[in-house]
């Protein structure tokens, strides 16, 4: 018990001595041992690494999981060392709703068929997103967390010990200056040698840990490359899925011409712009075949027969094809990128389509695949 009392008294004395030294330094009443410039640079680099790693980690978490409640739930599961339950992605949930809507509206209707096709693609997009999140969490987020919760905590601990050693050293220097008697000076000098040795040892330990930040950067660089590769693969998958979907929808495009119950979906493409892109404002300037009184409008009543259509007397326009297009049926004209064709419109025709002519060939063509020339 006496030993414990003496130890508590000793610890209290050391704490009081450090507090006094720290206070006097802040007030400018005591000298402070300065670290060399290289050491200070190592400290600044370590602090910068820690701060930016925290910011990158937090923002990447937001990127992968925008829902803050879900992030908190995942954090709690992680701290409890329990497996995070599987969560349905937004794409997969959208796919479920589209499929249910298609069954309700009728899977055989044009709208129902399209909902099913789009729903299948959304499901594939959701699965790809799930794989990307899993890969990014393991290959990128986990190493960043390991640094903050492992290496950085060790560095912080050793820096606090070094700070205490430095306060002890400077307090000994102050006591040596104040010592008058020879015996007091000898005791102060002996204490100073011990504290100086301890300070030098701790400074070397801390220096080695701080220099290890370079290895941390190399490790994080490798993880960053893996993150970029995962993200590239994810977006490439999404792009391919959407291309496949557009090609599938393009096969249905002729079905909707003249259908007053639904509008024409965007046609298939290699990489087409969406309907409503910058090319659309030029559509009203396309020459239009005049409507003859008493003659029924073939576009409004039935599927267009291009062979029965004649170009307008007022002239036509030239257009350059932007993307390859595969005709869905005999009423459409297949296109090859960069070729030149003649185009014009018909009264009552779907604004997303024009009549295109190439030599003796004639058929409907999607506006979004064309660059209209003046």
Automatic annotation (TrEMBL):
UniProt GO cellular component terms: cytoplasm; membrane
InterPro entries found in the cross-reference section: AH/BAR_dom_sf, BAR_dom, Endophilin_B2_SH3, Endophilin_SH3RF, SH3-like_dom_sf, SH3_domain
Gene name, Swiss-Prot/TrEMBL: SH3GLB2
Lineage: Eukaryota, Metazoa, Chordata, Craniata, Vertebrata
Record SUPFAM superfamilies: BAR/IMD domain-like (SSF103657), SH3-domain (SSF50044)
Keyword Cytoplasm applies: yes
Main location: cytoplasm
GO biological process, one term: membrane organization
SMART domains to which the protein is assigned, alphabetical: BAR, SH3
Originating organism: Aythya fuligula (Tufted duck)
Residue intervals of the BAR domain: 24-258
Subunit structure: Homodimer, and heterodimer with SH3GLB1.
Pfam families registered for this protein in UniProt: BAR, SH3_9
Alphabetical keyword list: Coiled coil, Cytoplasm, SH3 domain
Coiled coil: 162-189
CDD domains: BAR_Endophilin_B2, SH3_Endophilin_B2
UniProt similarity note: Belongs to the endophilin family.
Domain SH3: 314-374
Subcellular localization: Cytoplasm
Name of protein: Endophilin-B2
Keyword Iron: no
């Amino acid at each position: 018990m006496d030993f414990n009392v003496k130890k508590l008294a000793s610890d209290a004395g050391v704490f009081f001595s450090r507090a006094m030294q720290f206070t006097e330094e802040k007030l400018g009443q005591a000298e402070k041992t300065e670290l060399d410039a290289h050491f200070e640079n190592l400290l600044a680099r370590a602090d910068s690494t820690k701060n930016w790693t925290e910011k990158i980690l937090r923002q990447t978490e937001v990127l992968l999981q925008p829902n803050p409640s879900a992030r908190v739930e995942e954090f709690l599961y992680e701290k409890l060392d329990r497996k995070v339950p599987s969560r349905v992605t937004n794409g997969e949930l959208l796919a479920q709703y589209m499929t249910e809507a298609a069954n309700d509206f009728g899977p055989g209707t044009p709208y129902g068929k399209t909902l099913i096709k789009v729903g299948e693609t959304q499901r594939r997009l959701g699965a790809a997103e799930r794989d990307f999140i899993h890969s990014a969490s393991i290959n990128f987020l986990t190493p960043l967390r390991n640094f903050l919760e492992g290496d950085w905590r060790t560095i912080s601990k050793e820096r606090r010990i070094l700070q205490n050693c430095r306060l002890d050293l400077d307090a000994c220097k102050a006591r040596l200056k104040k010592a008058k008697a020879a015996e007091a000076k000898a005791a102060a000098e002996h204490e100073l040698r011990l504290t100086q040795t301890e300070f030098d040892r701790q400074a070397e330990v801390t220096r080695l840990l701080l220099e290890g930040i370079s290895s941390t950067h190399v490790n994080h660089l490798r993880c960053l490359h893996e993150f970029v590769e995962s993200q590239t693969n994810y977006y490439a998958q999404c792009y391919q899925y959407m291309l496949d979907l557009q090609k599938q929808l393009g096969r249905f495009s002729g079905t909707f011409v003249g259908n007053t119950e639904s509008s024409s979906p965007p046609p298939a493409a290699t990489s087409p712009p969406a309907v409503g892109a910058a090319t659309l404002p030029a559509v009203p300037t396309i020459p239009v075949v005049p409507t003859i009184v008493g003659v029924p409008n073939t576009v409004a009543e039935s599927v267009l027969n291009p062979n029965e259509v004649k170009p307008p007397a007022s002239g036509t326009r030239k257009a350059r094809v932007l993307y390859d297009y595969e005709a869905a049926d005999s009423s459409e004209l297949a296109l090859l990128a960069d070729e030149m064709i003649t185009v014009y419109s018909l009264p009552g025709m779907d604004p997303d389509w024009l009549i295109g002519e190439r030599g003796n060939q004639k058929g409907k063509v999607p506006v979004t695949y064309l660059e209209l020339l003046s």
